[in-house]
Specification:
The complex is a heterodimer of chains A (314) and B (434).
Chain A: H1 2-42, E1 48-57, E2 61-72, E3 75-78, E4 83-89, E5 96-103, E6 109-115, E7 124-131, E8 140-147, E9 149-158, E10 161-171, E11 177-179, E12 184-191, E13 194-197, E14 203-204, E15 210-215, E16 227-236, E17 240-248, H2 274-313
Chain B: H1 2-12, H2 19-45, H3 60-71, H4 74-84, H5 91-114, H6 122-127, H7 134-164, H8 172-181, H9 189-222, H10 234-260, H11 269-300, H12 303-313, H13 318-337, H14 344-370, H15 382-385, H16 391-414, H17 420-433
Helix pairs in contact in B: 2-16, 3-5, 3-10, 3-14, 4-5, 4-9, 5-7, 5-10, 5-16, 7-8, 7-9, 9-10, 10-11, 10-14, 11-13, 13-14
The chains are: A alpha+beta (314), B mainly alpha (434).
Chain lengths: 314, 434
């Protein structure tokens, strides 16, 4: 009986070995195939998309921003490390002047900033952002045409009301100023982690390209009441983003941190109940008093020993 | 008596590291080095290298801190409570327990600094401390406890150091240290009287401070309204748990000393028997607090507590929770109730169970309560809500544990592990009585 069991065990082991001998090469091949397929899939170039945004800040500075994305599954994700070349069409439109090359960051953003005077003085400015073909990406380019608009902002205080007067106009190639109506103006205040909206309703420019926005009185500024007020025309298809950023003393001044000394441990009476201060300090003084007494006892032991030693020596 | 004195002095003379001792120190240093690398990384990159996020803001660093604070209570148990109760068998254990207490409390302080994102601002904790904050009380009471524990270790050490300061068997560097630390001790009546008075005052003083350190540490949790922490029971619960782990640590170190330093004559079977019985008693008290701590909220199952209790009893942490309750508490009680279970080797193994269980228990006190925040977590990423320690945290935590063991090892290497003078006095007293 035992021998039978042993024989069948050996037999089973042989079958398993044969199976393994047959299966192992194909398994290994399969693995290699998977590896090859993975390498191949890694080499697939990504199809990119670019979203282009134009910003005119204080009528002095322009920013052209490209957000590089690719489709993964059903949604678009941003792409890091794509080299984006920005160009702008020259006045005669024959060729494009290179503005610069920027690599997209982890948010997929590549942007370039320059002086508005460097751009052609045509009524319409044409930007182009292009990504050249590489091992990782397919080539892609996108154009953005914006009309050369300006936003003039004036800050006025009248009868204890603070008004932001905005005028938007279009500058054509001849330098002619044409008012822009029906532009939505939004007002924000710069804060530590973002911008706080302060305009309570949508404000649209009238036929003369003007609007007046009432600025609230209850916004806190810095210690001098200074605020950075940001006036924006956002995502206009024709004009892009017009931004005006100005520092104005319309905020409520925050008192200087004069309470800092009151937050010191030894100024506890300012912020803690006095009985608690007395109890905690009382217990501390009592316990540390005893510790000090013991330390003095150690010194006493040392002195007695020293005196004894000296007495023995003499 | 003189022969006995010579024999005891000879037995208890600090011995150099053996091959195994050096290996042990090397291992601990290697763990410390790895932990240090991880800590440098944490310093450079910030606490983002840990698994702690907006919801679970306390992880294994704080569990480790609570563990160290707990284990340090043993100093007061041996040097104060048993001393004032005139329990004579505790004499060989006092120094071990004080050494453990010192090592644990030092590492507790260091662990808190490790848990800080900006350790360079550590001074602000003191300068801008709010006196009504339990955190401030904890800083105060830990510092005080460290000072008293240091004195309680140092003072009874003075006569022993004086015995060995001219002992040629010891290396010169150690004799020099002894010469500096012995405070010109001659054993005169005046010195002896000051010493006795001081040690007695320290023994009385350390009890409220030791209870204070554990109660205040529990208040760090209990003064919040978080389910799992919001309990008036937490102070005594912490104190009881601390006594258990402290007693376990003493048994473990005692067993190591007995085996490796050949001190079986001092760490007798009877001593293991007493300590094991004490551990059973302490564990029973702790078990009582555990039942009280979990049964009442589990009976009421208030909505805020239910998620926490469910998680502990049946959820992600159930395995850990029940392992700790059974193997860290019930099994040690059962084993140590039998005479054979109180033999050194088994008592040692049981004490290791108790210590490991105690560490995990602190983790279970700290972390699961934070996994059920009051603010909504629906849109938060999974890893923000569910805490999982990173390898950096494990390495740094291992470093603190290794550093504590290193302190214990070196203090055992440098000083007599049993209080020589006190032991001899006790022998004399016994002889006088007989």
């Amino acid at each position: 009986m035992k021998r039978n069991v042993k024989d069948s065990g050996i037999c089973l082991a042989r079958i398993l070995m044969c199976l393994l001998a047959v299966a192992l090469p194909s398994l290994l091949n399969g693995q290699a195939g998977v590896q090859k397929r993975t390498e191949k899939s890694e080499r697939i170039q990504k199809k990119l998309r670019i979203q282009l945004d134009y910003f005119n800040t204080n009528n002095e500075e322009y920013t052209i921003r490209a957000t590089v994305k690719t489709k993964e599954g059903r949604s678009y994700v941003t792409v890091e490390g794509a080299l984006v070349m920005f160009t702008v069409a020259e006045e005669n439109g024959d060729f494009d002047a290179v503005l610069g090359e920027v690599v997209s960051d982890e948010g997929g953003v590549a942007q370039i900033t320059g002086n508005l005077s460097e751009l052609p003085s045509t009524g319409i400015i044409t930007f182009k952002a292009a990504i050249a073909e590489s091992a990782d990406f397919k080539k892609y380019a996108r154009k953005l045409e914006v009309r050369n608009a300006v936003m003039a902002v004036e800050y006025a205080s009248r009868d204890s009301t603070n008004l932001i007067k905005v005028r938007c106009s279009l500058i054509d190639s001849a330098g002619q100023d044409t008012p822009i109506s029906d532009l939505v103006i939004k007002v924000y205040v710069e804060r530590l982690f973002g911008e706080l909206p302060v305009s309570t309703k949508f404000n649209e420019t009238d036929d003369s390209g003007r609007t007046e926005i009432l600025f609230p009185h209850n916004v806190h500024g810095n210690t001098e009441g200074q605020l950075v007020i940001v006036v924006r025309v956002e995502d206009s298809e024709e004009y892009g983003n017009l931004v005006n950023r100005s520092e104005i003393s319309w905020g409520i001044p925050l008192p200087k941190n004069g309470h800092l000394h009151e937050r010191l441990l030894w100024a506890a009476k300012y912020n803690a109940p006095v009985p608690l201060v007395i109890i905690v300090n009382g217990v501390l003084i009592a316990v540390w008093g005893m510790i000090l007494y013991i330390v003095l006892n150690v010194v006493k032991i040392f002195r007695i020993g020293k005196a004894t030693k000296e007495a023995i020596q003499t | 008596m003189s022969d006995l004195r010579e024999k005891v002095i000879d037995d208890l003379r600090p011995k150099p590291f053996t091959k195994w001792g050096k290996l042990w120190v090397g291992l601990l240093l290697a763990i410390c080095a790895i932990g240090l690398i991880a800590y440098i990384k944490q310093l450079n990159e910030g606490l983002v290298v840990t698994g702690m996020r907006d919801y679970t803001t306390w992880g294994i660093y704080i569990s480790n801190f609570v563990f160290f604070v707990a284990i340090s209570l043993v100093g007061s148990l041996m040097s104060a409570i048993l001393k004032l109760s005139k329990v004579s068998w505790r004499t060989p254990l006092t120094r071990i327990s004080e050494i453990i207490a010192i090592a644990a409390i030092i590492m507790a302080g260091i662990t808190i600094v490790i848990d800080m994102g900006r350790p360079d601002r550590v001074l602000n904790i003191i300068v801008y401390a709010r006196i009504q904050s339990p955190i401030t009380w904890d800083v105060m009471v830990i510092t005080t406890y460290l000072a008293i524990s240091f004195l309680l270790l140092f003072m009874p050490l003075i006569p022993d150091i004086a015995i060995y300061k001219n002992d040629n068997h010891l290396p010169k560097w150690l004799r020099k240290i002894y010469g500096f630390l012995c405070m010109n001790w001659s054993g005169s009546d005046a010195q002896q009287s000051i010493m006795n008075r001081s040690v007695y005052i320290l023994a009385v003083l350390i009890i409220p401070v030791a209870f204070g350190i554990h109660t205040v540490t529990s208040w760090l949790f209990a003064t919040t309204t978080k389910p799992g922490w919001d309990s008036t029971n937490l102070g005594p619960y912490f104190v009881a748990g601390a006594f258990v782990v402290g007693a376990g640590a003493v048994i473990a170190v005692m067993a190591v000393c007995r085996k490796l330093l050949g001190l079986g004559k001092y760490f007798t079977d009877k001593l293991f028997d007493y300590m094991s019985k004490l551990l059973v008693l302490l564990n029973l008290v702790y078990l009582y607090f555990n039942i009280n701590e979990y049964f009442v909220p589990a009976y009421k199952m208030k909505s805020s507590e239910a998620a926490h209790i469910d998680d502990l009893f049946f959820g992600d942490t159930a395995l850990l929770f029940w392992s700790v309750q059974i193997f860290g508490m019930v099994v040690p009680i059962i084993i140590l109730m039998f005479k054979n279970g109180r033999k050194p080797r088994i008592a040692f193994l049981v004490s290791i169970l108790v210590i490991v269980g105690a560490w995990i228990k602190r983790f279970l006190i700290v972390v699961p309560a934070l996994s059920h925040p009051a603010i909504p977590t629906d849109r938060a990423p999974h890893e923000w809500v569910h805490y999982m320690p990173t390898w950096d945290e494990w390495a740094i935590t291992a470093m603190t544990l290794a550093a504590a063991l290193l302190i214990v090892t070196y203090l055992m290497r440098m000083f007599p592990i049993v209080p020589v003078e006190e032991y001899l006095e006790e022998m004399e007293e016994k002889k006088g009585k007989s």
